[in-house]
Design brief:
The protein is elongated and about 60 Å long. 90% of the residues lie in helices and 0% in strands. By secondary structure, the chain is mainly alpha-helical. Helix 1 packs antiparallel against helix 2. It is built from two helices and no strands.
Length: 78
């Protein structure tokens, strides 16, 4: 059975995993769908889709770096 401090670390780890997962998935899904829609509308297939993926990767990387710093500070306080 888990002790209270150990449980606190597990919950923190699951929170990080969920937050990072959403931070990666949401921009990819939104920008890929937008790129695909615009490619279909303007006949530029697949360039805007690729651009959407590239932009999503950049946005996700910046957000992950910021959140990692925040979570690092929070981990030190546990």
């Amino acid at each position: 059975m888990s002790t209270a401090p150990e449980r606190k670390y597990w919950i923190f780890a699951l929170r990080i995993a969920g937050d990072f997962g959403a931070t990666i998935a949401v921009p990819v899904v939104l920008l890929a769908n937008l790129g695909n829609y615009l490619d279909t509308r303007w006949g530029t297939r697949p360039w805007l889709l690729i651009g959407g993926f590239a932009l999503a990767a950049t946005i996700s990387a910046v957000l992950i770096a910021r959140k990692a710093k925040k979570f690092g500070k929070e981990f030190q306080e546990l």
